[in-house]
Fold this sequence. Notes:
The complex is a heterodimer.
Chain A: H1 2-12, E1 14-16, E2 21-23, E3 27-29, H2 31-49, E4 59-66, H3 72-92, E5 95-102, H4 107-119, E6 124-127, H5 136-145, E7 149-152, H6 158-161, E8 167-171, H7 174-191, H8 193-196, E9 204-210, H9 216-231, E10 236-243, H10 248-261, E11 268-271, H11 274-286, E12 293-295, H12 301-308, E13 314-318, H13 320-335, E14 351-353, E15 356-360
Parallel strand pairs in A: 4-5, 4-6, 6-7, 7-8, 8-14, 9-10, 9-11, 11-12
Antiparallel strand pairs in A: 1-2, 2-3, 13-15
Helix pairs in contact in A: 1-2, 3-13, 4-5, 7-9, 10-11
Chain B: H1 4-25, E1 38-43, H2 53-65, E2 68-73, H3 81-93, E3 98-101, H4 106-114, E4 122-125, E5 137-142, H5 144-159, E6 164-169, H6 175-188, E7 194-199, H7 206-214, E8 221-225, H8 228-240, H9 242-245, E9 248-253, H10 257-264, E10 268-274, H11 276-291, E11 299-302, E12 304-307, H12 315-321
Parallel strand pairs in B: 1-2, 1-3, 3-4, 4-5, 5-11, 6-7, 6-8, 8-9, 9-10
Antiparallel strand pairs in B: 10-12
Helix pairs in contact in B: 2-11, 5-6, 7-8
Amino acid sequence: MKIMRNYCILLNSWERTDMGISFNGKLRLKKGEKAVLLCLAALLLAGCTGEKQEKEKNSIRIGVSLYRGDDTFINNIRGELENCAKKYEQEHGVKITLDIQDAKGSQNTQNNQVDRFISLGCDAMCINLVDRMDASFIIDKAMAAGIPLVFFNRQPVEEDMNRWDQLYYVGAVAKESAVLQGSIVVDEYRKNPRAIDLNGDGVVSYVLLEGETSHQDSLIRTEWSIQTLKDGGVPIEKITGGIANWEKSQASALMEQWLVQYPDTIELVICNNDDMALGAIDALERAQADKINLVGIDATTPGMEAIRTGKLLGTVSADKEQYAGAIFAIASAKALGEEINSDIVLENGKYYWCPQVIVMKEQQ
Amino acid sequence: MITKREKLLWIFYGIALLVLFLLSSTNLIIKEKEPEIYSFSVIVEDTTDEYYVNFRKGVERAAIELNADVSFITLYEADNQEQQTELMLREQQDGSRGLIVSPVEQETVVRLLSEKRIVIPLVFINSEASLVGEGVSTRIAFDYHTMGKQLAEQVLTEQGRGATVYLLGQKSPDMVSRQFMDGICSVLDTGLCRLIACQGAQEGEVADTVKKLSEGRREGVVIIALDPGILTEAAQFLSDHDEDRASVALYGRGTTVRILNYLDKEIIEGLCITDDFSAGYLSVKKAVELSDSKFTAQAEFLKSDYIKKEDLRDENYEKLLYPIE
């Protein structure tokens, strides 16, 4: 209204003269010029008064990019996200379109996917970064388009997270996962040392299967798992270790090699995730060395199956329903322009940490 | 001092430059044609896309190549036609230019078209339904009857005449499983084998059925699973029970990674596979054609094959079973 009033004042200040129109006696314009000016003014007026009426949204579109669709844990999260979307649709009558894309381990592909999400008019994006050190491109794009971003599982560096107040991260505390994993072995050792120290020489000889070096969780999981074993009084000795990049096939190959190199020596296999533990199990089955204990993290569906059949001693579960629920709750709230549900407690207004529990055969 | 002629020349140059700028860098004179984005929705009969992984890859490939925006929608509850109808109507209302549907009850979906409640083009998958009106609908199909016959002939060759063959299926099988079973029966139910239908297995009961069939048997048991879900459950059971595994020859159809892994481990003896990637790609292509009112065939049939473990390493089957997006 204020703008309209200014236009009226402006238009009233025109004066008619013999030569045409003068503005406060200084600016002289002809009839044609006046018409053009009036049109411009009318256009401006229309532009200003035609403010978009904020409509309540009845459909939202969320773009989801996964670092690798064949990662079992990520695939579980994807399934849960789809369930969350369906549930929300049913409960709230808001249509949710989830665009889920697999970046196949390529940051370039993921960047292109983000471009496509933006051009398709996504209201929020959930990104499982390929390269956690290289989030700037995606953040720049999201900021320019004004689309809130929820990162999950692969945490961007703090400097990137601090660049915008519409950036969120959902994950599990790596140290907690590791301590819980270590305590699986500690508890078993305390109950029956010979169940872990298979040859009874007073030392538990172990091998380590680690995730990607660039992933924030790999180092922390390794460090704190071992530390927990030491703190728990388990006498341990590392035989060897290797990086299997979270992958079952790579873990299987490494384990096969170690079984040849260190026959009848390995008593425990500590794995940074369940997929690698399953790869090691495959190698152990091929070598018919089924007494060796293995521990994993993630509680993926095949991992839980391995626990049920006694092939895996234990794993650590971040409640996937809650994990995906938090990602979805943040993304949908931001997409709808609403406040995030108060059940989702954010650390520093940005980070959501999913609680974790130990899973063993007796608990299933 | 510049002459009047030179002045005019400069003005002309200026105008020429301006026109060139407007021509090359703006939309003012030559309007750039905005690429048309086709928005389609794929609505399947299941609650997950577990059995549509390769199909979805084909859909996504076609979406990129044909400039389409495709939403893949699963039901809240499996095989619920009411929900599927609601979702079809919703997608139409939301501006979808075509639907690709694996119908729960094809008669209901056909009725939606004939009653003109659905007025946008429709591509049927996993269905016998095709034409409701020319240029309105089409279908992408596999000949499951022939597939069943092909599998039965292979079983006959591998297991010999007179074998007892158990058909393991659900209580109320879908149209695809029925066609597949008819194909099997047309070969085996002619006195060549003893055919016993074990239908009625619910989720989680398949393992018990397989156990009962294999328990205490000295001679081999031949089981044909009629759908991929049943095949997966049966294979999972045999994978966990080596003692039963030796006496069971398991056959079926499907292309999921789990099923292919079981074939690779020889838990599944032989498998009928379909080119789902091509089906996905073609369904989007057909939807685009229908949407542009171009002529399209009423039905497109795709081939299926029978494979064994050794075929998994065959280059052609590798491309078909593990398509690169």
